[in-house]
């Protein structure tokens, strides 16, 4: 077998727009695991946001890996043991949160179990809670409640404003942080050097797998490094232009079982 690991982004890739893995894609990935391949879910989501797809694909039975927070936290699916974690410096996080008050964004932070916001009715807040099956707590101040380790700071912003706001919110912190668009309405701030490729690299080292033995599927800007890192980088048919240009292959869209379609000829 040429490949040993399949790295999967979730939203826009593994999940169709209805957010439930289709039977065809599920069956293709179960067959891959039965052949000995390991599946790593690689998402910007917090860890609980990976559990639904982890269970659907039976990753606990097949030594699957969870790569959450864009590579900031890596766990074994079978026992949830943390294999690696990168923390957002707290002082810097407070500076960012104070800075964001001057812009039309909704900051959302989490402690790994629940989200914290200053307005439960803020833009896309309920969407994020539902998507990750996590509780949301409204607090008077995010900086005052920050007594836990952060991996990232999520910002929801209206799509028509995102590209204008992105350089403004990121400029003061460009030496220490990266600000990445992870959806048409999300910007995420993370420590420099933290991305899905780095999470995947650490995973490959732990599993003694080379990058050439990895197939990676993605659709968004934050999948770009992962696609370039992997021996076979596959862009979904609905992927952004930059990802399609970097990929080795462009498959069908997430609504057309693009993963299953690609695996039919790769495995």
Question: Can you characterise this structure?
Answer:
This protein is of the alpha/beta class and 267 residues long. The protein has ten helices and 14 strands. The chain has helices spanning 23-34, 51-56, 90-100, 125-132, 142-145, 159-170, 196-207, 224-229, 241-246, 258-266, and strands spanning 5-8, 38-42, 65-68, 73-76, 82-85, 106-110, 114-117, 135-138, 153-156, 177-183, 186-191, 214-218, 232-235, 249-250. The protein starts with a strand and ends with a helix.
Overall 3D form: globular
Q: Largest sheet at a glance?
A: 8 strands, mixed
Structural class: alpha/beta
Question: What level of helicity do the residues show?
Answer: 25-40%
Keyword list:
alpha/beta, 10 helices, globular
List the helices and strands and how they pair.
Blueprint: E1 5-8, H1 23-34, E2 38-42, H2 51-56, E3 65-68, E4 73-76, E5 82-85, H3 90-100, E6 106-110, E7 114-117, H4 125-132, E8 135-138, H5 142-145, E9 153-156, H6 159-170, E10 177-183, E11 186-191, H7 196-207, E12 214-218, H8 224-229, E13 232-235, H9 241-246, E14 249-250, H10 258-266
Parallel strand pairs: 1-2, 1-12, 2-3, 7-8, 12-13, 13-14
Antiparallel strand pairs: 3-4, 4-5, 6-7, 6-9, 9-11, 10-11
Summarize the structure.
The protein contains ten helices and 14 strands. It has 267 residues and is an alpha/beta fold. Strand 2, helix 2 and strand 3 form a beta-alpha-beta unit.
């Amino acid at each position: 077998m040429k490949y040993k690991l399949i790295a999967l982004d979730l939203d826009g890739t593994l999940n169709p727009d209805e957010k439930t893995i289709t039977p065809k894609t599920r069956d293709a990935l179960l067959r891959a695991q039965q052949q000995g391949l390991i599946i790593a879910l690689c998402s910007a989501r917090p860890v609980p946001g990976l559990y639904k797809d982890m269970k659907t694909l039976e990753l606990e039975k097949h030594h699957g890996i969870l790569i959450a927070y864009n590579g900031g936290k890596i766990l074994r699916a079978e026992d949830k043991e943390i294999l690696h974690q990168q923390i957002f410096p707290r002082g810097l996080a407070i500076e960012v949160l104070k800075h964001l008050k001057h812009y039309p964004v909704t900051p959302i932070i989490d402690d790994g179990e629940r989200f914290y916001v200053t307005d439960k009715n803020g833009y896309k807040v309920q969407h994020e809670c539902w998507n990750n099956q996590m509780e949301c707590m409204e607090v008077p101040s995010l900086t005052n409640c920050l007594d836990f380790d952060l991996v990232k700071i999520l910002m929801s912003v209206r799509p028509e404003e995102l590209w204008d706001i992105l350089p403004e919110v990121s400029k003061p912190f460009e030496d220490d942080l990266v600000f990445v668009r992870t959806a048409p309405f999300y910007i995420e701030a993370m420590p420099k050097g933290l991305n899905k490729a780095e999470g995947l690299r650490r995973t490959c080292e732990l599993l003694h797998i080379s990058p050439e033995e990895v197939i990676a599927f993605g659709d968004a800007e934050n999948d770009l490094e992962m696609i370039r890192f992997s021996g076979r980088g596959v862009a979904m048919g609905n992927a952004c232009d930059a990802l399609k240009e970097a990929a080795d292959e462009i498959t069908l869209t997430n609504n057309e079982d693009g993963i299953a379609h690609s695996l039919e000829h790769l495995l």
